[in-house]
Amino acid sequence: MFQRAIRGQNLPKYLSSDHDPLYRFHQWQANLRVLEVTEIKTVPYVPLSHPFVERLIGAVRREYLDRTLF
Questions:
Q1: Which of 47, 49, 69, 70 satisfies CB 3.0 to 4.6 Å to 54 for a cystine?
Q2: Mean pLDDT for the chain?
Q3: Which residue ranges make up each domain of the chain?
Q4: Chain segment 38-52, per-residue pLDDT in tens
């Protein structure tokens, strides 16, 4: 999926990721090594390390999930 997302674009020099187990998968690490992309991990349990993404997640939760009746 990552390869499809970056197809036809300039490769980033750095990529920020969280501590999801997906990003520890050996295929993910191998792809980053081949593409010469440096992975920068976020600080665990500190939402201020990515304020724009945290704001987007909060907006999605407020707009869509708060209105869902369970």
A1: 47
A2: 79
A3: 2-65
A4: 988 877 777 676 777
